[in-house]
C-alpha cells in the first residue's frame, strides 16, 4: 500500500501564477486623448499621466482620416489596460495591447497603440533624464538631413520652387507637377493637394488622368536635371496612382535623371510587381507608407526589392515596432525614410527624429515646415536648420503640448469629418491610391 505522505506521491496540478511585476516607481494614473488642428490638419496626441505630479508622456496617434475612431480605441480599450501599470514596461504593454483585440493591427488600432507606446518612451526618457535617442543606443549623426516638397503648375514653376528650397540649404527636393486639367495629388494648390487648402472642404470634382501623368513626369525631370545641375538630389512620389505596368514604364523613363528615390510605385495590394520593376529599372525605390502591419515590409526587405522604407510610424504601432523594423533593414542594406508630412504631429516628428539620429541605416527624413500655430501648441517642436532637423536635448521626446492652446484649435468642420473623398478616372471609376 502506498503511503499518502510519501515523497513519490503525485500532487494535484495547480494553475501557474506568474510572479507579480515590480512594484516600485510611478504608476499610470490616466490616459487622455487630445484632438487639435492648429494648422487645419487633424492631429491626435495621447497623454499618459502618472501618479507622480508633473510626470507624463506624449505620443502621436495621428490618423487624420479617422481621428475619432483612434480616440475611441484609446479611451475604451487601451486606457483600461494601462491604468495602474508601471510606465517602464513598454515592450510588455505593447505586446499585451497588440493582441488584446485578438484581431490585431490595422491603422485605427495601431495608431491608438502608437499614442500609448510613444508616450511611454517619452516617459522613460524623462525618468532616465535622457533624450529618447540615447535610450535607442545613442546618436550616430548630429542631425537628420531632410527632403522638402516642391511643386508647381509646370516644370518652370517646380524649378523655381526647388531653387527657393536649395537657397535655404536643402539638398533633397521632392518634385511634383500638376497635370493640366487633371486632379493632381501632392501639388500645392491643386484640388486634392496634401497642403492645407480650403479645397479640402469640398468634394473633388476633377478626374485623374494617369496616362497624361506618366507622359508629363519624365519631361519634368529632364527639365529639372538640366536646369538645376547634378548636385541636388531629386525625389518623386507616384502616390500609387497608376496601373502597375505604367509605374514600371515611368521608372524606366526616369532612369537618366538619377533620382534619389522614386516613391510608392504600386498600391499596397500590388507587391507582386516589385520583382519585375527591379529587373526593369535601376531606380532606387521607396515604399510602404500605406502598410499597417510591420510584417508587410519583411518580404520586400529580405528580397532587396526596395531601397528605402516609407513608414507612418504611428500607423505600425509606434517606436517599438519601428526601431525593430529599422534594425531588420540594416542587414539588407535598406535605409529609413519615415513618413513626415503635416499629418504627423510634432510629437510624431520628434519620434521620427530620435530614430533618425540613432539608426545607422538612416536614409532621409521627410520634412514638414511647421506653422506658427502648431509651434504655439507644441513647444519644443524639432527645429530645421541647414536643410536638417535638429533635436533639442530635453529628456524624452523633447516636445510639450500646451493644452489650452490646443483647445483653441478644434477640428475644422468637414462634410466627411476629414475623410478623403475619392479620386476618380474620367469614366467615374474610383482610383485606388
Ligand atoms: Mg508618399
From TrEMBL:
Start-end of Polar residues biased regions: 1-12
Residue ranges crossing the lipid bilayer per the database entry: none
InterPro entries registered for this protein in UniProt: DgoD-like (IPR034593), Enolase-like_C_sf (IPR036849), Enolase-like_N (IPR029017), Enolase_C-like (IPR029065), Mandel_Rmase/mucon_lact_enz_CS (IPR018110), Mandelate_racemase_C (IPR013342), Mandelate_racemase_N_dom (IPR013341)
Keywords from the named record: Magnesium, Metal-binding
PROSITE patterns reported in the protein's UniProt record: MR_MLE_1, MR_MLE_2
Coiled-coil regions, chain positions: none
GO molecular-function terms, A-Z: magnesium ion binding
Family as reported in the entry's similarity comment: Belongs to the mandelate racemase/muconate lactonizing enzyme family. GalD subfamily.
Protein name as catalogued: Starvation sensing protein RspA
Organism: uncultured Thermomicrobiales bacterium
Amino acid at each position: 500500500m502506498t503511503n499518502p505522505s510519501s515523497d513519490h506521491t503525485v500532487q494535484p496540478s495547480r494553475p501557474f501564477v506568474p510572479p507579480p511585476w515590480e512594484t516600485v516607481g510611478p504608476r499610470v494614473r490616466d490616459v487622455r486623448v487630445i484632438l487639435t488642428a492648429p494648422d487645419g490638419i487633424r492631429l491626435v496626441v495621447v497623454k499618459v499621466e502618472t501618479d507622480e505630479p508633473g510626470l507624463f508622456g506624449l505620443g502621436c496617434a495621428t490618423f487624420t482620416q479617422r481621428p475619432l475612431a483612434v480616440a475611441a480605441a484609446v479611451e475604451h480599450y487601451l486606457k483600461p489596460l494601462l491604468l495602474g501599470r508601471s510606465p517602464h514596461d513598454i515592450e510588455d504593454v505593447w505586446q499585451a495591447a497588440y493582441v488584446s483585440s485578438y484581431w490585431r493591427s490595422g491603422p485605427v488600432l495601431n495608431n491608438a497603440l502608437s499614442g500609448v507606446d510613444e508616450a511611454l518612451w517619452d516617459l522613460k526618457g524623462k525618468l532616465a533624464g535622457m533624450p529618447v535617442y540615447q535610450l535607442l543606443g545613442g546618436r550616430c549623426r548630429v542631425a537628420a538631413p531632410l527632403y522638402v516638397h516642391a511643386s508647381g503648375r509646370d516644370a518652370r514653376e517646380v524649378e523655381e520652387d526647388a531653387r527657393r528650397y536649395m537657397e535655404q540649404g536643402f539638398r533633397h527636393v521632392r518634385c511634383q507637377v500638376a497635370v493640366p486639367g487633371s486632379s493632381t495629388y501632392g501639388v500645392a494648390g491643386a484640388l486634392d493637394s496634401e497642403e492645407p487648402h480650403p479645397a479640402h472642404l469640398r468634394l473633388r470634382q476633377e478626374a485623374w488622368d494617369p496616362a497624361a501623368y506618366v507622359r508629363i513626369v519624365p519631361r519634368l525631370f529632364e527639365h529639372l536635371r538640366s536646369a538645376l545641375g547634378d548636385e541636388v538630389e531629386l525625389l518623386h512620389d507616384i502616390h500609387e496612382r497608376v496601373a502597375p505596368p505604367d509605374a514600371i514604364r515611368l521608372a524606366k523613363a526616369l532612369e537618366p535623371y538619377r533620382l534619389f528615390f522614386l516613391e510608392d510605385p504600386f498600391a499596397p495590394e500590388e507587391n507582386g510587381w516589385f520583382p519585375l520593376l527591379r529587373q526593369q529599372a535601376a531606380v532606387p525605390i521607396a515604399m510602404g507608407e500605406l502598410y499597417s502591419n510591420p510584417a508587410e515590409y519583411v518580404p520586400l526587405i529580405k528580397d532587396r526589392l526596395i531601397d528605402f522604407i516609407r513608414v507612418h510610424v504611428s500607423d505600425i504601432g509606434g517606436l517599438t515596432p519601428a526601431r525593430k523594423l529599422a534594425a531588420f533593414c540594416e542587414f539588407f542594406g535598406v535605409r529609413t525614410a519615415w513618413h513626415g508630412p503635416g499629418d504627423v504631429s510634432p510629437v510624431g516628428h520628434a519620434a521620427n527624429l530620435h530614430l533618425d539620429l540613432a539608426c545607422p541605416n538612416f536614409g532621409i527624413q521627410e520634412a514638414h515646415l511647421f506653422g506658427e500655430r502648431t509651434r504655439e501648441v507644441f513647444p519644443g517642436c524639432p527645429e530645421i536648420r541647414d536643410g536638417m532637423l535638429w533635436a533639442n536635448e530635453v529628456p524624452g521626446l523633447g516636445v510639450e503640448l500646451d493644452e489650452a492652446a490646443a483647445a483653441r484649435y478644434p477640428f475644422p468642420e468637414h462634410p466627411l469629418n476629414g475623410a478623403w473623398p475619392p479620386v476618380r478616372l474620367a469614366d467615374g471609376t474610383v482610383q485606388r491610391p
